[in-house]
Amino acid sequence: MTTSNKGEGIVSDHHLIQTIVRRAQAGADHRLTAEAAASLAVDALAVHLAGQRFSVTGVSVARQQAALPKTGDVVACSLESAEGARLRLLVGGQAGAAYAADVSWSVTGEGASAPQMAVDPALPPIAATRTMRMDHCDQAGHVNVQVFLELVDDAIAALAGRSGLWAALKVIEARVQFKSELFCGDAVVVRSGVRQVSSESADIVHGLFHLASGRLAAVVETRCGVASAADLAALGALSEAWAVLPAARPPADPRPPGAPSSNAIESCRATIDAWDVDPDDNASMRGIIQLCSTGARQFLGAIGLDGLRFAREKITVAAVDYLVSLPIRPRLGQNVVLRTVPLGFSAKSMRFCHYILDADTGAVFGTVEIVGVMLDLATHQSTTIPTDVADTLKRLTAA
């Protein structure tokens, strides 16, 4: 294991956590706090002990010489040494280690042994890592797509940082396809590779893997816009075909029109708040998907699948495919409204589109298309859409 801290950033062959400094982790000076560094260190321990149950017995954090990362910066938590039930970790960003953290723990139950983060030559390097918590999961206990896209934001920032492009790339399109379930406590790694670079954008594909087993959980394809073509030169050096992950299948027809049609259902009204935005005050991808999750539940209620029915019949609708097109992001303080249009359905699945609109002007920010599968929570198997719901969808799609 090698670790270096000479001003060029933390260079290590054992990054446990790579993420972006978010508002909640920063103080009044917009810089990473010691409390946030301690929390990252505990998250890093959870990754290190993936599959094991543990209780933290002590955490201490000491300030180091490097400048503190600020909101929007990539921050890494890297293993410097391990001795028994104690880890020493370095937490910092481009400038090097800003904090050193010592974490000790005791094992509280049976579990898998800590995996080795071996390098697979067929895969790109790990760009982000995280252990899933209860607040990452939906009501059915599955890790929510919001968290996947937040991990992808982390991975893109880490990838750009490694190529000297520290300014954040903005996701303008995303396709998320789920492959297997993730639950609370699972440690997840993201491996990201550049597929294509043009004068205006970079296409980056991400594989989200269950750390302990290596199982593929999701594939996320992103198109990122940049400020100038010169910014992409550094990423171009990383451009390579990544055949391990197949390209997503083409989106289904019919395609949604440019504006919501007359059969659209208003499913959400909200104001973009401080906790919904990135460091540039644009709505974060996680904030957008949170709006869409609310909109989806309201839309499902309007077609006959409200919360009471879900609970009574022990069913739900599980989203398995997302297609996000967001050329313009709402900004802090803007009022937004979601109008949702059903696009089609089959015996066990439905497809609908959220239009994200400026509530004051009616301008369209973008769209989020979702494919949802009817799920029996008792068996975790797909099941048939209830007849009355299918009748409603048939009427709406014919309108």
TrEMBL record:
| Statement: the UniProt record of this protein carries the keyword DNA repair | no
Which keywords annotate this record? Hydrolase
Superkingdom classification of source:
Bacteria
Query: Gene3D superfamilies, from UniProt?
Result: Hotdog Thioesterase (3.10.129.10)
The identity of this protein, by name, is: Thioesterase
Q: Which family does it belong to?
A: Belongs to the 4-hydroxybenzoyl-CoA thioesterase family.
**A matching Pfam family:** 4HBT_2
PANTHER family given for it? Answer: 4-HYDROXYBENZOYL-COA THIOESTERASE FAMILY MEMBER (PTHR31793), NOVEL THIOESTERASE SUPERFAMILY DOMAIN AND SAPOSIN A-TYPE DOMAIN CONTAINING PROTEIN (0610012H03RIK) (PTHR31793:SF27)
Q: Name one GO molecular function term.
A: fatty acyl-CoA hydrolase activity
The species this protein was found in: Phreatobacter aquaticus
